[in-house]
Amino acid sequence: MQQIYFDPGDLFSRYTLAQLSDPAFNPSQHPELVNWAATFNDPKYGHDPEFMTGLGMYKITTWQPGQHITLEKKTDHWTQNSTYYGEKSLPEKIIFKVNRDPNSQDLEFKSQAMDATGSISTKVLINLQADPGFNRNYHSGFIDTYNYSYAAFNTRPDGIKHKKLFTDAAVRKAIAMLIPVDQIIKVVHKGKNKRMVGPVSFLKPEFNAELKEVPFNIEEGKKMLDKAGWKDTDGDNIRDKVIDGSKVQMNFKLNYYTTQIEWKDIATMMAESMYKGGIKAELNPMDVGNLVLAARQHDFDMMLGSWASSMLPDDFTQLWHTSSWTSEGSNYSGFGNAETDALIDSIKYTLDDNIRIPLVKKFQEMVYNDQPYIFLFASLRRVVIHRRFANAEMYFERPGFTVNNLKLLNPGSMQVNNATP
Amino acid sequence: MTGYIIKRLLFFIPTLLIISLMAFIISLMAPGDPAERNVQTQTGSGYVSISEQRLVQKKIWRKKLGLDLPVFYISIQSFASPDTLHRVYPEGDRKLLERLIRMYGNWPEISRYFQSIRSLETASTTISPHAYNSSPEKAGALNEIKFACLTLFSAHNPGQVTTRLNQLQKLITENDFMALMPYMNNLRGSYNTMKSARTVYKNYIPSVSFNSRNQFHRWIFGDGNWLTGKDAVFSRGIIRGDFGTSYITGLPVMQELVPSIKWSLLFAAVGIVIAYFISIPVGIFSAASIGGAFDRISNGVLLMLYSMPVFWVATLLLLMFANPSVLQIFPASGVMPVTGYGRDASPLQIIMITIPYMILPLFCMIYGVVAYLSRSVRISMIGELNLDYIKTARAKGLPEKAVLMDHAFKNSRLPLITLLANVLPMSIAGSLIIESIFTIPGMGFQTLFAIHHQNYPVVIAIFTLTGFMSLTGYLLADILYAWTDPRISFRKAIG
After folding, report:
1. What does each C-alpha distance from A194 to A139, A147, A191, A204, B329 come to in angstroms?
2. For A180-239, how does the pLDDT look when each residue is reduced to its tens digit (9 = 90+)?
3. Complex ipTM, two decimals?
């Protein structure tokens, strides 16, 4: 953000960074800073088009809550005369329209009331692609992403609130064999997602192709659980084991987000399949904030989640370093030891791909062998772009296409159309 | 009538108090930490990377939201509990302290034990794991120490605590963390003292305190002057329409709701007017021609309409009338063109542009009401038409139209008033299914979205406002009943 917007009174030229970061610095003794903070945090800067000014090529001109947001090209932006492809802003106006109903989305694409989207459901796009009229008018596709979903184990529970169910890697591998990942992809996502085997996307050169998908094999999973000492000794169809002197049942809560019905479907399919192997998972829907908070505090047994990544080389510190476990960071499952920490640190500071890539492959192998997550699938983005536009390329990165690069092929005859966010 | 209205208004006060108390209790019982949710909203990403920073921010939000205050005017607790226990944060820490108080009853020793865990945890975090790069085992052990400290904050069972303390002792000794030794000794010592110097009897002595500043008072009246609202800093209270801020947008709740209320009110009001225009003549004519062709056909059609689920009808209408493959007469979603109405559009032009967007949702909203209302008017009219005064009117030679409209219908209007009373709460509650299907930014969708995202300030505001509007609607209905039908006596209603 430019200073003329966030600090028009040049307040911060009166303070040094050292002053502001000094723990002894008390902002309440500086009323001008308190006033500035109150103004800066005012919600109008996030909701009122008049006060929303960013560095980008477009400016929000109207915002009808729950209806649409209109962006118009700035007339004095520094990229205006740029010849670089990535800096071009071709549409004069972009309208992001809200449409929440799948049937209505289907109709709006059939009637060409929408120009593009990167966020319709798999089912809607499959239906649309069955219509020759739609295919005549639109480019569309299921595009790979760097995002993946997983089921995380709490591998280092406190043993008090959460029992030591998944501390043994052999148990985690056995449970992974009980999960019908292919079936989940087929049923829940109409076969449109792709399996993951580790924390690195198969789109990247660092991907370790030698790691094989964990097969769905209930009988083999049962044998492994038996071998690990988890047996049904009391005939209630739930396995148990004596841990630290007391009998513990393989019965736990499976946390998942309430945001989308698909999470519930996945959790249900997992729970049903695990039950066949003598494991009882109770479904525990949670909102995002509470689920993430519980995960950071290691207050869970098993949870579903997803990570969004990008084409950039991965830094595994946030998700896999033990420091991210003890500091209530994103290493929810408690993966890691001194060896993996050292490897993560080395990967972070190694620039030479000839050295870095083998290290990343080695790291994937270590994660795979430890199985702190059951790696489920990489989601595919559903992208639709009207054929009236040139530059209709689809990308792995969000939102799947570059709105500002879309170019009307015949501007004179075109009506104004919309994009869904 | 004035006396009656005043008396009814006075009845409002305890009812409103009960509604607000219920809403407050729901807000207290709602899962999750409001401070955490607000921190997530402000940071945008839902995640603040450093836990200490997050804790500081959450404490600021607790103060802003008044969560550091006692819950109600009166607190009843045990003599063993300190009167400031409600201020302890995070909630997990407070729960541990409550459990320890119940087990040992000696607050000063409990507090000392708790602080000694905190001291060891802080001391362990001051040692950088990078200092042990040459010894991965020590770096790992340091992580285990930190985690063991974390788990002590949720452990109260003596066996579990002792196991943890032994584990800590072993990790510190075996890995030669001499800097942590004094903290470890202090922790073990304070735990032993807490156990040996227990005063459990204090838990059985009640302690009652009165809190003039409390969460309920603040929620109702704000944090300024309770009467004028002057000097309010973070909240002006729901009495002045301040329901707090939305977890999702960070906007004041009422600012977020007002545009949605406008749309729902528009649809509810227009829908009810149309429903009246259709159902009254249908009901009257049906009653007048009882057993005739019109009566039988209208009965069948209305029964069918009444039986059809709204989500099915809405989807069917979309697929029929907003579908380029069938008939594309109406837009498939929204309430206005995405290009706006045009800068110079007159009010009439705006109405004409908006009408196509309203027809399908309005039909879905009113067909059930029309069916219900027509049947009610019909039944009510049939009852009236069989009474002696109607026979007398007919015997006097009055035209049938006058008999129906001036006599029978006049006394059959009560169901219409009852429905009218529902317009106000409907404007707040909206129509959840229809608004979702047609992408109408009304209260139904707001409610669904707020519940779905556990946006409790908005949910509580909708709950409270719906209760308030229902009460207002019932008052209006009572007045209209009395005004319409002189047989309903104010005196009798009061007495």
Report:
1. 21, 11, 8, 14, 41
2. 999 999 999 999 999 999 999 999 999 999 999 999 999 999 999 999 999 999 999 999
3. 0.76
Q: How far apart are CA B38 and CA B32, in angstroms?
A: 11
Select from A47, A113, A133 the Cβ nearest to the Cβ of B251: A47
Is B18 in a helix, a strand, or coil?
helix
Q: Quote the DSSP letter at residue B322.
A: B
Q: Is A333 helix (H, G, I), strand (E, B) or coil?
A: coil
pLDDT band at B440 (very low <50, low <70, confident <90, very high): very high
Cβ neighbours of A258 in B, within 8 Å: 452, 454
Place of tokens 């259709």: B278
Pairwise CB contact (< 8 Å): B331 & A326 = no
Burial of A141 (0-12, 13-18, 19+ CB in 10 A): middle
State the residue for tokens 């974390």.
B150
Lowest-pLDDT choice from B13-27, B42-56, B147-161, B232-246: B42-56
| Distance of residue A222 Cα from the nearest chain B Cα, in angstroms | 31
pLDDT tens for residues B125-148? 887 766 666 677 787 788 888 888
For B441-475, the pLDDT digits (tens) are 999 888 888 887 778 889 889 988 888 888 888 88
pTM here?
0.81
Spatial distance between the Cα atoms of B49 and B216, rounded to a whole number of angstroms:
33
Two structure tokens written together for A89: 């802003």
Cβ separation B50–A322 shorter than 8 A: no
Look up residue A215 and give its DSSP letter. Answer: P
- CA-based nearest residue in chain B for residue A288: B453
CA distance A28 to A38: 12
Question: Residues 290-349, chain B: which have Cβ within 8 Å of A?
Answer: 315, 318-319, 322-325, 328, 331-336, 338-340
Vertex A70: Cα angle to A65 and A72 (nearest 5): 155
Q: For residue A66, what are the contacts with CB-CB under 8 A and spacing of at least 6?
A: A98, B259, B260, B439, B440, B441, B445
Taking residues A263-274, what's their average pLDDT?
A: 97
Window 6-65 of B: residues touching A by CB (8 A cutoff) are 31-33, 36-37, 40, 42, 46-47, 49-51
> Closest chain A residue to B453 measured between Cα atoms?
A287
In whole angstroms, what is the distance from residue A178 CA to residue A279 CA? 10
Strand ranges inside B106-205, DSSP E: none
Q: Where are the domains of chain A?
A: 3-42, 60-142+384-419, 145-378
Q: Considering the domain A145-378, what is its CATH architecture?
A: Roll (3.10)
Of residues B71, B58, B359, the one with CA closest to residue B216: B71
Domain ranges of chain B: 74-209, 215-239, 253-337+349-494
Task: Name the class of domain A60-142+384-419.
Answer: alpha beta
Mean pLDDT for B340-364 is 92
DSSP per-residue codes, A74-105: -SS-TTTT---GGG----SEEEEE----HHHH
CB contact under 8 A, A298 and B335: no
**Phi, psi angle pair for A348, to nearest 5°:** -65, -35
- Compute the mean pLDDT over every residue in chain B, rounded to the nearest whole number: 87
CA dist B377 to B184, B213, B292, B380, B482, Å? Answer: 81, 53, 17, 5, 19
Q: Which of residues 238-257 of B touch A (CB under 8 A)?
A: 245, 247, 249-252, 255-256
Supply the CATH classification number for the domain B253-337+349-494: 1.10.3720.10
Q: Do A70 and B453 touch (CB under 8 A)?
A: no
